[in-house]
Write a structure and sequence with these properties.
By secondary structure, the protein is of the alpha/beta class. It has helices at 30-33, 38-41, 53-66, 86-89, 143-150, 162-175, 192-207, 215-230, and strands spanning 4-5, 12-13, 21-26, 69-75, 101-102, 105-106, 128-132, 154-160, 179-188, 211-213. The chain is globular, with a radius of gyration of 18 Å. The structure holds dicarbonimidic diamide.
Length: 233
């Protein structure tokens, strides 16, 4: 039975075999979400990103209940910054640069307290965690190979920030042939107008990059999958 999510620019069809669907949660890490991290050092109001946590938690719980693939990403660099090009290191003009010591440890460095995913969305054992040096989650990571190994064809894309790492990842995924939907209330930006523009760009021209929908629509389709599992033939 094919399950459809009410979405824009038109219905998004989930794969018949739901094991081909993955939830991708981009960079819900303290460095972007909390005062004292990278986002804050760049002068952003980081607390506005907190608004999406309840909806994302609910979506994550639904994926876990169905035993579906969950991918968490973390933007980070090696302690020696060998994977951080000067073009990234020197940009921004913020109070603290990548690798500097901040209140949550070294900014955007793998393993530092500020680099961890916020506790509400902490990965469970067995969930995929991708450490990525770039904005897109496919660049210089094993993500493509992991998704291929699991036979994943469809991605629900969430996280922060909408127009930077979330959009970049969705575009990378689109070019690799994945059917992608950005979950509207599970992604956020420091700039509300950039979020809105990104959603519009994704679904423009007949869904040139993919679909968008609120999490309630996704949850409704996932709930219907459970009903169809127990319904008599
Ligand atoms: C940024 C991200 N904004 N995760 N990273 O530098 O969007």
């Amino acid at each position: 039975m094919s399950l459809k999510v009410e979405a824009l620019p038109y219905e998004y069809e989930l794969p018949e075999d739901l094991s081909k669907l993955a939830l991708v949660i981009i960079d819900m890490q303290r460095d972007f979400m909390e005062p004292g991290g990278f986002g804050d050092a760049l002068g952003n109001d980081v607390l506005r990103l907190q608004a999406i946590v309840p909806a994302l938690k609910e979506l994550l719980a639904a994926f876990r209940a169905l035993g579906l693939t969950v991918v968490h990403t973390i933007e980070c660099h090696q302690p020696d910054l060998s994977d951080c090009p000067p073009s990234k290191l020197n940009r921004g003009g913020g109070a603290l640069k990548i690798g500097d010591e901040g209140p949550m440890g070294r900014i955007l460095v793998r393993g530092e307290p500020g680099n961890g995913i916020i506790p509400e969305l902490a990965p469970l054992p067995g969930e995929v965690v991708i450490h990525k040096p770039g904005k897109g989650a496919f660049y210089a990571t094993p993500l493509g190979a992991i998704l291929a190994e699991r036979g994943i064809t469809h991605l629900l894309v969430t996280g922060v920030t909408t127009e930077v790492c979330v959009q970049t990842t969705m575009r990378e995924a689109n070019d690799r042939g994945y059917e992608c939907l950005m979950v509207e209330d599970c992604t956020e930006s420091y700039f509300p107008e950039f979020k809105q523009s990104t959603l519009e760009m994704v679904r423009a021209q007949g869904g040139i990059v993919g679909w968008t929908a609120p999490s309630t629509n996704v949850l409704a389709a996932l709930a219907a999958s459970r009903v169809s599992e127990v319904a008599p033939a």
